[in-house]
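Review box. Two proteins, two foldings.
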Amino acid sequence: MPLHPEVAAVTDRIIERSKDRRAAYLALMTQQRENGVGRPRLGCANLAHAFAGTDEQRDRMKEGRSMNIGIVTAYNDMLSAHAPYYRYPEQMKVWALEAGATAQVAGGVPAMCDGVTQGYAGMELSLFSRDSIAMATAIALSHNVFEGAALLGICDKIVPGLLMGALRFGHLPMVLIPGGPMRTGIANSDKARVRELYAEGKASREELLDSEIAAYHGKGTCTFYGTANSNQMMVEAMGLHMPGASFVNPGTKLRQELTRAAVQRLPEIGWNGNDYRPIGEIVDERAIVNAAVVLLATGGSTNHLIHLPAIARCAGILIDWQDFDRLSRVVPLLARVYPNGSADVNGFEDAGGPTFVIRELIRGGILHADTTTVAGDSLADYTRKPDLDGDQLVWRDHPETSGDDTILRTIDAPFSEEGGFRILSGNLGRACIKVSAVARDRWTIEAPCRVFSDQQQVHDAFKAGELDRDVVVVVRFQGPRANGMPELHKLTPPLGVLQNKGYRVALVTDGRMSGASGKVPAAIHLSPEAIGGGPIGKLRDGDVIRLCAEEGILSALVDPVEWAAREQAAPPPAEAGVGRELFALMRLTASEAEAGGSAMLAAAEL
């Protein structure tokens, strides 16, 4: 199928907008490539330091003729998704030796869990943890003793941060290695129901805790389709996993063999062979468009409207929300996975998973199929599902039909002809909204607003019954420069309760919502943010706001003369504690959300 003309036009727009930056990036990567393998150029004392911690690999590393793989790991056992990585490095070293290579843990990166910090002060470090991960990845790879890298990471800021750092070493071949999702716990609908009962005071803390433990119960990623699992879908479409690796459960033979295959693929695509595939060339404009397309086609996380622009900029590529909006009008919605449906990612995988989605989008001319990947010269390699034939890893063709058409559909019979993303603009600025899980009769909300400066104020007003009416809840001073742009996911249960009561409810914020954004319409990432003069700072309680996803409108219905004359609200004082004060410089220099919400990129002018 020929490429859809609008997908081609958006890609051309990105290529034209990026041409100078991308040329400069590729020139820098060529320069790093031409400097050659680092180890032969290092002094003997430098090399001795690099080899001192290893035993069985030392002789091979000393020769300097085979690839040395740098492992960058986000392991910790406080994150269920990253706990399986505990044994990976020692296994990977054995598998590297089998392929005539060596491997070393180049470094660890911080990996915080948004699920633990959600709604608390630690969440204000979350977005900037991504920049910290990027810088830690650069530190890990800076020793100049690696000819390739394996990146171990899955969750929200971790994959974007790993990619941002890795792309500054774009002359090296790299592969991302996931660990897979935990097995299914209680139904997502049951989990949501108990949360809403607790918000109403109809369930005890003990009942809520038991429900949450039944949902989050083992090693592996959380099973809802939030940012972590959207990461996996995106990385598959960029060609940076072994095909079909995303949603194979931890602790299985298939999971182990996919990891072995990833490690042993790296020497095959190294710069000493004739199949050199550096990550900086794999992640081109087409790969970035492919990532955006699959996120839209699966109702993926709104966080990637910040993360994907930041990743792209690290490869010299400029993508903006207008590109997402244009793509969303032509990308069909093929998947319904919680919170955009009732199934979890295990059900999604059983129905066909990422490989089915990629096959259908290629069949419909919605994806660039001719991209280079770590596996081959076409994204078609990612349309076949991994399996075991005895102990041998193989890839098999999909059935032509979905395993469950309530979860996953073909290109000919999508859930919707459009993806789930829209841009909103008006006198409040520019925001984005995920509508794939929002009922169509809720796409337009016009109601008086109630203005808050933090989540706790919203919860207090909800408990006092002050929001029992049609209302647009405004939460400002939540952008990158204000407090690090924490997710406001804890607002979902009370707003859901209000909507269930029949009220017309919406959220407007310069902060983030969540990869689990759901049924309540939410205009998020509003730019410019309140800090620095964004119009959201002019709002007062009682102002009527019109949010219309159909028409792309977000405006305060205030007399223009009065609106122009209004002063900005004073921001709340900056808070210290939980390490927040250490990130003051990042807050000061952070870019707007549409440019990636990054302090690092703004400072480096990438």
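Next protein.
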Amino acid sequence: MSFRFLTPQFAVSPQLSVADVNAAASDGFRTIICARPDGEGASQTPSAEIEQAARCRGLDFLAIPVRSGSLPSDGAVEAMRAALERMPGPVLAYCQGGNRAARLWALAQAGSMPADAILAAGRTAGVDLSALGDHLNAAPHVPQPATGRPGARRFNVVIAGGGAAGLATAASILRRRPGIALAIVDPSATHYYQPGWTMVGGGIFTPEQTRRPEEGLIPAGATWIRQPVAGFLPEARETALEDGTVLSYDVLVVATGLTLDWAAIPGLEETLGRNGVTSNYRYDLAPYTWQLVQGLSRGRALFTQPPMPIKCAGAPQKAMYLSCDAWRRRGVLKDISVGFDTATPALFGVAAFVPALMAYIERYGIDLHLRSKLVAVDGARRVATFERATEGGSERVEQTFDMLHAVPPQVAPAVVRSSPLAGADGFVAVDPATLRHATFADVFALGDVAGTSNAKTAAAVRKQAPVVAVNVLAALDGKAPVATYDGYGACPLTVERGRIVLAEFGYGGRLAPTLPLWLLRGTQPTRLAWFLKEKVMPQLYWRGMLRGRELLAAPRNASGA
């Protein structure tokens, strides 16, 4: 296919195929813009396929659909103008025949390029733009200057973090306002479904079921910047990247997640993955958990939980229950001494679910120690040291093990802790309802990095993302937050293979069941909850939440409606 250049940095073409994308990349194009709505023709390649092919070749992609037979809307023109200002060139735009893409470009140049020059550029590419008439004599467009230092790349919204929270929020924003200039900043090439790692450690999922390429999850219309964030400068509305790039924003969303502080427990990090030491909190170690469970027929197995806050507070117990159930099914549980040391004062933070969990503690014969913290590991000797609370203070206790499932303390990322955004605990200080920063009205945070008291789970993100999306758009419009988050979180506690206690709760431990309590037998383990965990929740994550589909997660109005 031949590409028609209106300028050395901009060309148009008819409908592209995947092969045409490869040719465009070989010709040096760096950005592809789709100006054609999907579904216009039977043989039309969907824009999602063109986007995937573009991103595979390292090209940026943006869809600004323009209906056939009509002039581009003001929103489409502004989106095109913003794209040409911030996306790398040369740019190739396409539609059915190329003319709509050319008109979109021409209107985006109006006011900053003489009308005669625009018409001449069209003639060079074989496109008659004269029908645009007076539209090309618009008042000069004055780009909004980037705040802060010269050379900053400007976006309406910058999202720091491309995990579950960042992707879900970006998708929800772009579904509501497709033409917005939005950047997702994250260097990771792979995205992980972390709730599935418990199932990997229990022999139910394979590791491969829990990962997908990040590029296939970036929502259409977003710019993916593959760099780590190096610093937040909220006074200047800037975010600095590791390579020295500075991003300027109208609104910032912090969704960086948290940091697993393995080094906080002396001896732990260097023995992970060997000497019987494992953790479902890492993708590469969850298979080792199942390997150890299968190989153990007698001896001592220890499971630990650090002080809060941590990612999914039920996960340390889930690993233990699934292991015990596997040993029970093999008939070897009676020969294995199982211990659970948790730094928390209770088995679970919501009292209503404790009786059902205690029944399994007793069923499996687990030696439970509350207010007990893992403080050292000697892998070579297979000895774990705990600091346990006593009536008069604390004591150190050494325990030998054949298997140790360890969960590390968890902290906010260093880039957040050292920034003006951090609260006293190091996490981003936000209003717990609106998720807007306590000081900076143009900053929001959600997910594990947000300094709220809710459980740090993917289920919480599913409810937080639409709230942040709506409030971000309100902030862009100069309005106060209009949606609130009620602290919802969910923890499917896998007490045995085939049964789960589905704990759903909000701020203050208030029960917040999605389905009627009678259907899930209240706070008791059910097979239905297992079905939801094994079959439904992964699909809800990949196909729903990360795509901005807000099934049973529509944001509540700030008034409570």
